[in-house]
Design brief:
alpha+beta; globular; PH-like_dom_sf; single chain; RanBP1_RanBD; PH-domain like; 213 residues; seven-stranded antiparallel sheet; 34% helix; 7 strands; Ran-specific GTPase-activating protein; 4 helices; GTPase activator activity
């Protein structure tokens, strides 16, 4: 007669084998189709891309200071049909936009506090926060060589936009749009007062180095 203990051991080992081979399969209750996410970059040609750190000049603070906006790839993108060029920068990981504005001929990159790897410029309509507003921005690269490459391409884009505007008979169209946005946001100030304020802000920003941040 079989030993009851041996029978129990055999049953236990059989159970273990069945558990190890068990592979349940469950059908999903709801099937979710893949959705293509549009970034609006699909209609643009990438002219330039390089890693950098971006800042905005917080003139409203006392004292005024540069505030970091994020680190990521700064891009210069040309629309395939319209011919417009914009500067776009997204933060690493989150991909949240920290700079988004059109390149226009009147823009000028200036050295930041004498630094050879950082540039300062002014835009009348930055769309990083969806609502357009004027910003004084600064961008810092890893080294002087990268900073110079950015400036060369930035200036090339300005010239290309200028020629495109002349070719379509809309030389000042982008400038006029920016100026109109400016008027809507500062109705209580005259044009001369605003220009003087922007000039003062740029001079302040140039004097505050982002290299120390």
């Amino acid at each position: 007669m079989a030993d009851p203990k041996d029978q129990e051991d055999h049953d236990a080992s059989t159970d273990n084998v069945d558990d190890s081979n068990h592979d349940p399969h469950f059908e999903p209750i709801v099937s979710l189709p893949e959705q293509e996410v549009k970034t609006l970059e699909e209609d643009e040609e990438e002219l330039f891309k390089m890693r950098a750190k971006l800042y905005r000049f917080a003139s409203e603070n006392d004292p005024p200071e540069w505030k970091e906006r994020g680190t990521g790839d700064v891009k210069l993108l040309k629309h395939k049909e319209k011919g417009t060029i914009r500067l776009l920068m997204r933060r690493d990981r989150t991909l949240k936009i920290c700079a988004n504005h059109h390149i226009i001929p009147m823009m000028e990159l200036k050295p930041n506090a004498g630094s050879d790897r950082a540039w300062v410029w002014n835009t009348l309509a930055d769309f990083a926060d969806e609502c357009p507003k004027p910003e004084l921005l600064a961008i810092r690269f890893l080294n002087a060589e990268n900073a110079q490459k950015f400036k060369v391409k930035f200036d090339e884009c300005k010239e290309e936009v200028r020629k495109c505007q002349e070719g379509t008979g809309n030389t000042d169209s982008a400038n006029k749009v920016a100026e109109k946005l400016e008027e809507l946001s500062v109705k209580d100030k005259t044009s001369e007062e605003k220009k003087e304020e922007e000039k003062k802000e740029i001079q302040q920003g140039e004097g505050y180095s982002v290299d120390a941040l």
